[in-house]
Amino acid sequence: MNLEQLQRAVFEVTRQPLTPSERLRPRLPDGRCVREIANALIKPNDRMTSFERLQVYSQQYWFRIMGSLSEDFPGLRSLIGGRKFEKLAVAYLNECPSESFTLRNLGSRLEAWLRKRPEYIAGVERVAIDMVRLEWADIEAFDKLELPRITTADSAKLDGDTVLRLQPHLQLLDLAYPVDELLLRIRGKASKSDTASNAVLKFPRQARIRRSSLPRPGKVYLAVYRLNGIVYFKRLTRDAFALLQAMGEGKPLEKAIEISLVRSRRSLDRLGGQVQEWFKEWSSLGWFARQS
Amino acid sequence: MPANRFNGNSDYGVGIGLRVPHYQHIFSKKPVVDWFEIISENFMVDGGRPLEILDQILERYRVVQHGVSMYFGSAEPLNREHLTRLKSLVKRTKTAWLTDHLCWGSVDGRYTHDLLPMPYTFEAAKKTAQKIREARDFLEVPIAVENVSSYAEFHVSEMTEWEFLNEVVEDADCGILLDVNNIYVSSRNHNFDPFEYLHSVPAERVAQIHIAGHTKYQRLILDTHDHPVIDPVWALYARAIELAGPTATLLEWDDRIPSFDEVHREALKAKRYLPSQLREAS
After folding, report:
1. What is the 3-state secondary structure (H, E, C) of A217-276?
2. How many whole angstroms separate alpha carbon B13 and alpha carbon A282?
3. Diameter of chain B by CA atoms?
4. What's the whole-model pTM score?
5. What percentage of chain B's residues is helix, strand, coil (to nearest 5)?
6. Which of the residues B83, B114, B214 would you substitute to probe the A interface, choosing the one with the greatest number of A C-beta atoms within 10 Å?
7. How far is CA A90 from the centre of its chain?
8. So what's the ipTM on this one?
9. Which helix (H) or strand (E) holds A289?
């Protein structure tokens, strides 16, 4: 058995979801016996069988990635409860194993996966997906690039043909539920960890989050952005959101305003001087980047 | 402290890991610390608070980068995006040397986020050394590889762990981040003499030493980095210093992290094992 074959064999076993009592499953999905695979790969010692030694690594794999996903999505966990979250997380991580060198990206495919597998959020589909979108936007806003901001001199030169670039960390979300309020209540109760140890003792169930009551539906247009190292949520009007969205699509200012009028079904008269006020505020929040 | 080409001919003393719970203390009290070790992956981001924190640290302290997911021992090629981001961070921190683990952890582009033990084969040693050389050539900084704690051994192994370590570092011509706690943990899990391991390490290649605590269970020891260093590990450290000379030393404490002062005090115990003239000078 060469290096590649050995590593494939070990990974195939260790990434199989654990039993409810957090043990290695006796068989792989194709029916092969895990004990036989372990015996062929791993030496036993005077205290542990080959199976038990391989199990240590399977447990560490699952405890680590489950813990990381749980840290990143406390809002989803709070919405659906701890047990359902664990089932969802195992299924998601089994079907979408990490493809990044950093655990930061572990939840990057969660929204798309939930849209295909809504049975894991049955009864709360829309609000749960809104929460996942918000929690992922929060991660993106936390450490995405901040480009140099436009200056007052740049602002003075703006005209209808100007294409304003939005900061990469600025995330725009149209939500059907006010999950921002809910997440703000939950945030701060879970702490991030950074570790160089290769041991995780258990799935961090002790970091329990009380299950939240479902918020009532209510359209929310939200900007998630970073200012001075801190991530903020800012609610927007539908018009403002439409304008920012069009600018984010790379439209020149005049065109962006036109599009936003169509999308928000407003007239230019009604929008009036609000646009100038918005630009002033958004510039002060650093949402516009200088063109390179 | 004596220097060698594997730690950029630097003279670092005793440092500790830079951890989130200590940020406030570090920025408000500005404690005297010889150097901080950072987990590279935590700062390989586009922007935001992690890099702002790092820049503030770099204004006052020396930093050495320690990685957890380069996976020199994985059969698949190095991840180019990882390398590119790592190089950008190397330029930012000006780390005198860079470390990661002698282990594997990815298969077909899928990551375990664990430090999995190597099969100690000549094929594995050759492939691992090749990847270390590639990474060093790209990153343009000395690399030292760390021996990991392990809980399993493979039937296919053709040599001991320390023979494998020698094989890799000689072939790659790289340094060693000697983790004496990991030697202890593995020695208990696999029934070998930790001093035999230590005496087999090419002392001239030791760029840095790690010390840490661990957790003892009935049938195995886990490398948890959540306790003070125990006496048998200090004994290994003392012997390592006798063999390699005073070497940059780092205490790892990653879980159930106590106060900054407690972690720093534990780390500074390492100075007891320095030759007396250096102990007085430091």
Report:
1. CCCEEEEEEEECCEEEEEEECHHHHHHHHHHHCCCCHHHHHHHHHHHHCCCHHHHCCHHH
2. 48
3. 53
4. 0.92
5. 45, 20, 35
6. B114
7. 16
8. 0.94
9. strand A288-289
Cβ atoms of residues B260 and B22 within 8 Å: yes
Helix ranges, A157-198 (H) = 179-186
Regions in chain A scoring below 70 on pLDDT: 188-210, 272, 292
Tell me if residue B253 falls in helix, strand or coil.
Answer: coil
* pLDDT tens profile B183-225: 999 999 999 999 999 999 999 999 999 999 999 999 999 999 9
Dig out the tokens for A291 from the structure: 């063109």
State whether residue B112 sits within 8 Å of chain A by CB: yes
Q: How far apart are CA A51 and CA A170, in angstroms?
A: 48
DSSP 8-state symbol, B140: T
At residue B16, the 3 state secondary structure works out as strand
Residue B153 vs residues A201, B147, B157: alpha-carbon distances, Å: 20, 14, 8
B80 touches chain A (CB under 8 A): no
**Chain B residues lying within 8 Å of A197, measured CB to CB:** 212, 223-226, 252, 254-255
Q: What are phi and psi of B208, to 5 degrees?
A: -160, 155
DSSP one-letter string for A59-98? HHHHHHHHHHHHHH-HHHHHHH-HHHHHHHHHHHHHHS--
Q: Is B77 exposed, middle or buried, given 0-12, 13-18 or 19+ CB atoms closer than 10 A?
A: exposed
pLDDT at residue B214 in the model: 94
Closest alpha carbon to B181 in B209, B211, B151, B207? B211
Q: Say if the Cβ atoms of B46 and A143 lie within 8 Å.
A: yes
CA dihedral B98, B101, B107, B113 (to 10 degrees): -90
Map out the domains of chain B with their CATH numbers.
5-276 (3.20.20.150)
Residue B2 to chain A, least CA–CA distance (Å): 26
